[in-house]
Amino acid sequence: MSGILLKNCAAVVVDDGNGATCLRDVDLLTSGTEIKAIGPDLDATGLPENTVVRDASGWFVYPGLVNTHHHFFQTFVRNRADLDWTKLSVIEWLDMIYPIFSRLTEECFYHSSVTAMAELIKHGCTTAMDHQYCFPRHAGKGLVDRQFEAAELLGMRFHAGRGCNTLPKSEGSTIPDAMRETTDEFISDCERLIDAYHDPAPFSMRQVVVAPCQPVNCYKETFVESVALARDKGVMMHTHVGEGESPVIEARTGLRTVDYCEDIGFAGPGAFYAHCWELSHDELRKMAASGTGVSHCPEPVYLVGEEVTDIPAMQALGVRIGLGADGAASNDNSNLMHCIHSGYMLQCLVAASRAHPVPEPAAFLDYASKGGASLLGRKDIGRLAPGMAADLFAIDSRRMEYVGTRHDPISLIPKVGIGTNTDMTMINGEIVWENGVFTRVDEAEIFEGAEKALATLDGN
Questions:
Q1: Taking a C-beta distance cutoff of 8 angstroms, is the pair 322, 282 a contact?
Q2: In terms of CB atoms within 10 Å, which of 33, 78, 192, 243 comes out highest?
Q3: Pairing state of beta strands 320-323 and 293-296?
Q4: Which InterPro entries does this entry report, sorted A to Z (predicted)?
Q5: What is the reported pLDDT for 457?
């Protein structure tokens, strides 16, 4: 792969590190895996003969989206009326859904990962961090390996969050014994995966995150050992925090979850938490001071019915923010672009009750790109500029749904929303989706494989 030249782009959302701006009527040139130049009238002469030239007239070009929290395996338990949150309490729902999770096979984990990644790519996501905490004993220990296989199939930049649950139900967790691991099992497999797959080099396509599921379902030693391993190996840490469990953790330990994690050392620039909707401003200040990040997942609010996360306070207090699609058990799609729109609109809905104003629409696009890169510890992705990874997506704006919106490409996604697939998604300099077709795989074939694996579950 030599390079790709996008000619006559109607707009390119660029960022030199000081905030996003929009360049009009410019070209974008990639060389190998990186962006070479962005500007008007880039000369195609002198480029290698196999440089691909695309007419990008009418295209709005954006940085590839970075998904910082997902549960790919849950794509196999979505759109089920029997698991409707509105008819169940959280505890009732967990008691019903975990036995279903425990029946998943290795093939289910592989094909559900392909399913989630394919949908993400179609909607402009170029990097994804999956929080895979479900390890039924019968499915074996190769589940994350199969996820890396799925990412390679589609060309996805993938960060594998190797999760676990170690606390038994008899001691207060919600995890069936068939899905529970020991701390030693977990740490040993994390170390194996890091040694086998983790690549810290620029433009890396594979990284590993140490990600015990959540403090409420794990022994303290699990988190202590996670911190030790992550620091020794130089990898990121991730877990669920602030989604209603703080009173439980406080009853067990005398500390709410943020203080509990900070006391253990599961905090700082090398850590980020998912959700955080129940946290106080004092807790957010502590996270800002330590550099701990938040993966905000807006769409579960619709189904779970909990309060809207106070993003204006996080922004005002200096907390690092990224976006996550979350699992299909609480968000029935894998569309991070839709989360940008949902995230902004939900904040507008509750603006009158907030102490701080809603961030500008552009901030929500930033959370889903540069903000997500920051959470994952990446400086090479998340924005469009020469020298950055060639991760991007394009929307042809010459459609009726964009009439009246084309003056502000940066606010288009947060304010208006994008109701269609991208016209093109590029990852690491390779076009992996274009004109409704995956370039590496036959969609009909991967659909058939996923449907066959799904059919092995009872009740579908």
A1: no
A2: 243
A3: parallel
A4: Amidohydro-rel, Metal-dep_hydrolase_composite, Metal_Hydrolase, MTA/SAH_deaminase
A5: 85
Q: Which amino acid is located at 437 in the chain?
A: V
Question: Quick check: 36 and 85 in contact, CB under 8 A?
Answer: no
CATH 1.10.12.10 correct for 3-64+381-443: no
Q: Where are the domains of the chain?
A: 3-64+381-443, 65-375
Which two structure tokens, joined as six digits, stand for 419? Answer: 């109701």
Give the residue among 441, 379, 365, 438 at the shortest CA–CA distance from 408.
365
Q: What is the 3-state secondary structure (H, E, C) of the chain?
A: CCEEEEEEEEEEEEECCCCEEEEEEEEEEEECCEEEEEECCCCCCCCCCCCEEEECECEEEEECEEECCCCHHHHHHCCCHHHCHHHCCHHHHHHHHHHHHCCCCHHHHHHHHHHHHHHHHHCCEEEEEEEECCCCHHHCCCHHHHHHHHHHHHCCEEEEEECCCCCCHHHCCCCCHHHCCCHHHHHHHHHHHHHHHCCCCCCCCEEEEECCCCHHHCCHHHHHHHHHHHHHHCCCEEEEECCCCHHHHHHHHCCCHHHHHHHHCCCCCCEEEEECCCCCHHHHHHHHHHCCEEEECCCHHHHHCCCCCCHHHHHHHCCEEEECCCCCCCCCCCCHHHHHHHHHHHHHHCHHHCCCCCCCHHHHHHHHHHHHHHHCCCCCCCCCCCCCECCEEEEECCCHHHCCCCCCHHHHHHHHCCCCCCCEEEECCEEEEECCEECCCCHHHHHHHHHHHHCCCCCC
User: For 111-167, what is each residue's pLDDT tens digit?
Assistant: 999 999 999 999 999 999 999 999 999 999 999 999 999 999 999 999 999 999 999
DSSP β-ladder status, 34-39 and 424-427: unpaired
Q: What's the pLDDT tens digit per position in 41-93? A: 998 777 778 899 999 999 999 999 999 999 999 999 888 877 776 666 555 77
Model confidence at 396: pLDDT above 70: yes
Query: Cβ distance 56 to 26 under 8 Å?
Result: no
